[in-house]
Amino acid sequence: MKLSIEESARLKDPVYLLNIKYSLAEESRLVRKFDLHLMTFLCALYLVSYLDRSNIGNANVAGLSRSLDMSDHQYQWLLTVFYLGYILFQWLTLFWKRFPPKYYVCIVVVAWGLVSTGQAIANTWVQMMALRLLLGIFEAGFGPGVPYYLSFFYYRHEIAFRTGLFLVVPPVSSAFSGALAYFITKHMQTDPWRLLYLVEGLPTIFLGVLCYWCIPNDSKSARGLTPHEREIAAARSLRQIGTIERVHKIDWNEGLASLVDVKNLCCMAMFFCINVSFASLPIYLPTIIRDMKHSNASAQGLTAPPYLVAAIATLTVTYLSDKLQQRGYFVAGAYLVAATGYMVLATVDIEHTGIRYAATFLCCAGVYPCVGVLLSWLGNMHGDDNKRSFAYVLLQLVGQCGPLVGTRVYPATDTPRYTRGFWTCAGCLAASAALALWLRAHLAKLNRIRDNVYGPLVENAIEMVDSGEEDDDNGFEEDYNGTCGAGLEQESHRSFRYIL
């Protein structure tokens, strides 16, 4: 949509934007449009992203190793090499800030779509290794940066549920992938894994082309907005971080400071631990279920119900986390639920297939929700775009090393119990639950310090920030060119408090 010169000028005028009047109903309608247009498309992209990275588990059950004459050791390396590329190129998250997202995302998605589809014609282990490495590199440019990108559109207390919507895609994706793999395995006798890669890779290329029209560079340029809604979107961005434009240069000094921030270090450790389980679950769940004496085809189909439960749990937990403005308790609780599931799998004999299958529901229902809340929690801890972008890079850089462990702790020699892998996951999750509770206590202490310096906030301070109301006792009189309400979610603002 082309804007008039007058409309463009208003969208760049901070004094005008901070004085526009709008109702909560108008703001809610704007947020719903973000949900409908932006979140729907991002979820579609993450659906194909997760399918393309994790369908190797289904492909292996469908005959990949047998067709390419691979040993278990070689298969393990196919899993590992993806994460080598994925980890080493986590710095691509900074490109969300440096370049217009509509161009950047379009290039990245088309590139990994071509690589994913190319796996269908691979004939050797070396070719598959090269393609899996490239897949990891290109996918590193998308998923890890999305939580940061969402902060362009949503306030701190709105973002956990939206991150949950985005992250509910992996369990839905895994359920869909399992059902599709079941159908292909059942009806195609010769190399069904090739057709699986082809069917799941081509839609990625199509969606990548659509990114040019469907990915806005910032909130005010989103599709389907009226002129007044564009002004509201720009005003929300200005109130949030004190600036209208979100794509600009990178401050490397903030990156150095992020390296020693204890909040980042705690989240990095927790994300590492959760990724030990998060990455290995979709890859090995079909194999785990198959080793419960189910056929290959049945094992593919039985992976779907646990993932559907995980989707429901993710939406419920992230919604409640936003509603109650609590992060730490939900993260710790989700960790403990997943740890319980893994401990059951580690201790119950293989003959008790019903109990072990039920435990996979606990694993999925705990692992997936805590990822969404943890990602939102990290973003909530930083009110500045530079700090937030570097925090996400560090989180992903360290956290994504978890899959290097997770994909190596289920060797074929441990079949059918996989005790080593289950205990490793359970231990990591339990330790992370304790760390989450400590971090919550630390943030509460920092809030008390800010209360002592600036005075306590009123109970409905968050709602006042979002509606633009002012309160002389709580710092809402801070100005931007003489106007109230800019940068209310920045750490430098006296109204900023950490979400616990």
From TrEMBL:
Protein localization: Membrane
Keyword Transmembrane recorded: yes
Protein name per its UniProtKB record: Major facilitator superfamily (MFS) profile domain-containing protein
Main location: membrane
InterPro entries per UniProt: MFS, MFS_trans_sf
A GO term from the CC aspect: membrane
Annotated keywords: Membrane, Transmembrane, Transmembrane helix, Transport
GO molecular function, one term: transmembrane transporter activity
Membrane-related topology note: Multi-pass membrane protein
Transmembrane segments annotated in the record for this chain: 34-51, 75-96, 103-121, 133-152, 164-184, 196-215, 265-284, 304-321, 328-348, 354-378, 390-409, 421-439
